[in-house]
Amino acid sequence: MGGLNDIIKKQQEALKKPEEEKIEEEEQLVGFIVGEEEFAVPILSIQEIIKPIEWTRVPFVPDYVLGVFNLRGNVLPLIDLRKKFGAPSADMDENTRFIVMKIKGEDVAFVIDRLTSAIRIPKKNILPPPETYSNDDDIIEGVGRLNDGRIITILKVDNLIRREEIVPDKD
Amino acid sequence: MDDLQELLEDFLIEAFEMIDEMDQDLVELENNPDDLELLNKIFRVAHTIKGSGSFLNFDKLTHLTHHMEAVLDKARKGELKITPEIMDVILESVDAMKAILEYIRDNGDDSSPDVEIDSIVKKLDAIVSGNATSTSEEKEEIKKEESKTVGGINLEDINPDNLDELDLSSLSPEELDQVLDKLVDDMNTSPEEEEFEEIVEESAQEHSQEKEESSKKETPEEVKKEENVPAKKETSTQITKENQKKELQKKMVTTKEQTIRVDVKRLDQLMNLIGELVLAKNRLIKIYNDVEERYEGEKFLEELNQVVSSISIVTTDLQIAVMKTRMLPIGKVFNKFPRLVRDLARELGKKVKLIIEGEDTELDKSIIEEIGDPLVHMIRNAIDHGIEPPEERKKVGKSEEGTIWLRAYNEGNMIVIEIKDDGKGMDPDVLKRKAIEKGIITPQEAENMSDKEAFMLIFKPGFSTAAKITNVSGRGVGMDVVKTNIEKLNGIIEVDSIPGKGSTFKLKIPLTLAIIQALLVASQEDLFAIPLSNVIETVRIVEEDIYTIEGRSVLKLRDAVLPLVNMADIFDIEKILLPEKYLYVVILGLGATKVGLIVDRFIGQEEIVIKSLGEFLKGLPGIAGATIRGDGRVTLIVDVASLMKLAKETHNKKLVTDSINEVKKKKEKPSDYTVMIVDDSAMDRKIMRQALEELGVNILEAKDGMEALNMLKQNDIDAMLIDIEMPRMDGYTLAQEIRKYNKYRKLPLIAVTSRATKADRVRGVEVGMNEYITKPYTKEYLQNVIRRNLKL
Fold it and tell me: Which one from B40, B159, B381, B566 is the annotated catalytic residue?
């Protein structure tokens, strides 16, 4: 009977192990290019990724707010990340995508140059943004080093747009 | 637990409704103190609230209601005459009841520490004891106690919900009669309880036998029961009760009232879905129109047409039906005003009569909720500022009692609420003077102001004409808030007044908020939807119609002079369209203010569904929201009130005549112009190039339609020479594509082709070609055509 108990024990340990390994926490991100740089956002903050569609300009907003567009009956704001990050503007091409993300409960779309890949990165490989980064508006969560040596900037989705920067105060 | 919660909710809904009704009835009672039926009704309401309150263990509420009921009971028996003073106390206790009920609603119990009832109870008791002999009161109490228990259950506690707990068959005919009486009372106060009717119907069938007997015996017993009531009144109550009972019996056999309470959220959801459907319908119609053009004369079109029109009819009907379910009679709001008017008039020592008309007029629920406060302000204002004190009225030969009319009626797609008083009216000159004193307007502005505009001054923030500040009005807040609130509902306010005769305020509000009629206009390439309710008219003018007065552009329209602003300037839209001979102007109206808005094109009138721009973009100046059009694109909806403000600023800054000519770039020499040649044959391109080079214009070349379209978007092109037969995209298609852009509507497109049949030419015109040159042609001919089109 002792043999059977041993087997059961081993089985249980075997079941436990992978979980323990997983406990080493990982972030799942989606990487994309804007301008010259690669950025990433948590995969769970992404609602959907679509090809560019026509949008409508909106008056009195900063230039990085391109306007609004219709996504299946909902009106969504469209933000140009190139302009937002101060990169030189470029025409949209067949790689351009709109990433729709949920920010403070609202869907907002961002224009990116192209998608790179889905990324799994251990949390320990994510470092706080270096001092040299200009991060005045607190939009950078950290910097991640990937196994292949790529460096990606992880964005704080919630801070990507702020109402007070877009809509001028009354008067 | 849930059952109790549900019961409590039902109780609260019912109680609030009853109290609102009671408020109104009490005010009416004050005018007709002898209306016994009314008094009975009020008594019954108090009684019901007391009964249900005690059932739910709301002691404080029961205590208060009990004492109030005692006063009403006395009045009902003719032992007490309702004077305004007594009415004050009764109304005070009704207010306390309301406060307690609100506390119950929020907290679930009636401890309501903020509501102090002892003093009210004392006052009520004083009224009761001050007028009545103690003996009759006691006797009455005893009588009441006696008649209260039926079949082991307290009569007060019998209500439709617990009726089945009661073994009706065990009751004596007399007891059954009492139960029925109680139920009749209940029904009078809560007519919409259909559940109750069902139950009574059941019991009625079971015991029809007994009832027949009991109704025979009824008269002597009733007399016994109410023996201490004066004989005359007894009969009248008797008769009404008799009638009611008969009615009830009749109702049991015939119809039940078919109503159902629905959560507002569900209706909102339904309304949203309808909105989507309306959008889809608009889109379908648009697609049909496109298809119709392309497949003209084909058989399936007829069928498609039928489907499209039936869908659009059904959608419209559905929309109206759902809108109707959200409609409530405006009486819901109006009902609280008799009380308000009474209280205010007493407080201010004025005599005021309120006449309400059209309380059945229906409005969307969300509007009903928003309209209450503005109306309160306006009525307060009418009493405080409009109606004069009695002595003053007498002096000018008016009756001492002032009158306020509150009317509601439909006018097209709008509902009009009219508040009229026969008070002292407003003097435009006085208003202007006040506004100048307060620095709201300049003396020059005052001079140019019409009387109607002067009346609108009362809606300016910081404007108040009351010489002394009362707690009713005159604190300088209120009327401007009223205006903002009404404008939020897309409504407009009109004011008219004759000094000495009175004032009339008209609020015009759309029937519903979610779907509106709009005028679609284009300013340069951008489309905007303007709520039709604010569009007074549209006109076409020429530049010569524009005058400049004191450095500002105005339009003379018939005998009015309107400020004129270019919409593109307001929204800072880049000007890319060349000015045309005619200018299109939308005359916007908001209250008495009118503004002429220059747009570049009228698109048409359309039913649009209002959508929010979301948390990040809402509240942009001049923009109320967005709508999705038939083609799936988003169009911004203009917020007229805010746009008018922006227009005023722009008007002071920029001359329209400058603005419309901004785009006229300095193109004088031929080298300022660029012509594009589109042809797949290199030789043909060369022939054309040689001809054009002699003219001295710049030249761009494209090999097919696709290439041409891309080049057009990236360059500033003044004319195009287009071959018809080309790979990838032919010349017809190219022209069609180009004409889709507002920007290129006037771009000269010249077909250069060897296809020379009449049909080809017609096709060319159809797709938007300006000229048609057939190969071969002379160099001079081509040059002439180009010169003419570029106006060289």
Answer: B381
User: Which residues of chain B form CATH 3.30.565.10?
Assistant: 329-510
Report CB contact under 8 Å: A77, B622. Answer: no
The angle, 0 to 180 degrees and rounded to 10, between the axes of the packed helices B36-55 and B231-253 is 70
Quote the tokens at residue A15. 């079941």
Which chain B residues are Cβ-neighbours of A68 within 8 angstroms? Answer: 613, 617, 626, 634, 636
Q: Are A116 and A166 in contact (CB under 8 A)?
A: no
Q: How far A76 CA sits from the closest chain B CA (Å)?
A: 7
Lowest mean pLDDT among B104-108, B314-318, B467-471, B734-738: B467-471
Distance (Å) from the alpha carbon of B415 to chain A's nearest alpha carbon:
30
CA distance B319 to chain A (A): 18
Which residues lie closer than 8 Å to A59 by C-beta, 6 or more apart? B571, B572, B573, B620, B621, B622, B623
Query: Range(s) for CATH 3.40.50.2300 in chain B?
Result: 670-790
Q: Which residue has the higher pLDDT, B241 or B272?
A: B272
Pick one of 3.40.50.2300, 3.50.50.60, 3.40.190.10, 3.30.565.10 as the CATH number of B329-510: 3.30.565.10
Distance from CA of A96 to the nearest CA of B (A): 18
Q: Calculate the CA B148 to chain-centre distance.
A: 49
* Nearest beta carbon to residue A167 from set B571, B573, B620: B620
Domains belonging to chain A, first-starting first, are 24-166 (2.40.50.180)
Beta carbons of B577 and B743 less than 8 angstroms apart: yes
Task: Give the number of other Cβ atoms within 10 Å of residue B708's Cβ.
Answer: 28
Residues of A in contact with B623 (CB under 8 A): 58-59
Q: In what order do the strands lie in the sheet with B352-357?
A: B352-357, B402-411, B414-421, B502-510, B492-498
Q: Which is higher by pLDDT, B265 or B177?
A: B265
Match domain B670-790 to its CATH number in 1.10.287.70, 3.40.50.11740, 3.40.50.300, 3.40.50.2300.
3.40.50.2300
Which numeric CATH code is attached to B515-661?
A: 2.40.50.180
Q: Which of A68, A103, A107 sits opposite B613 (nearest CB)?
A: A68
CB contact under 8 A, B614 and A77: yes
CB A32 within 8 A of CB A38: yes
Tell me whether residue B69 is one of the annotated catalytic residues: yes
Say if residue B28's pLDDT is above 50.
yes
Tell me where in chain B the CATH 1.20.120.160 domain(s) lie: 1-132
Q: What is the pLDDT along chain A (171 residues), one digit of tens a residue?
A: 556 777 777 777 766 655 555 556 888 999 999 988 899 999 999 999 999 988 999 999 998 999 999 887 789 999 999 998 888 888 888 899 999 999 988 899 999 999 998 988 888 888 888 776 666 677 888 888 888 888 899 998 888 888 888 877 644
Contact of B782 with B688, CB cutoff 8 Å: yes
Give the number of C-alpha atoms closer than 13 A to the C-alpha of residue B594, restricted to the C-beta side. Answer: 20
Q: Hey, are the CB atoms on B526 and A57 less than 8 Å from each other?
A: yes
What average pLDDT does chain B have?
78
Identify all chain B residues contacting A76, using CB atoms and an 8 Å cutoff.
614
The DSSP secondary structure of B544-558, one letter per residue, reads: GGEEEETTEEEEEET
CATH topology for B264-325 is Helix Hairpins (1.10.287)
Residues of chain A with C-beta less than 8 angstroms from the C-beta of B634 = 55-56, 67-70, 75
Closest by Cβ to B634, choosing from A70, A106, A163: A70
CATH of domain B1-132: 1.20.120.160
CB B113 within 8 A of CB B107: no
User: Which among B572, B621, B626 has CB closest to A75?
Assistant: B626
| Residue B107 is a catalytic residue | no
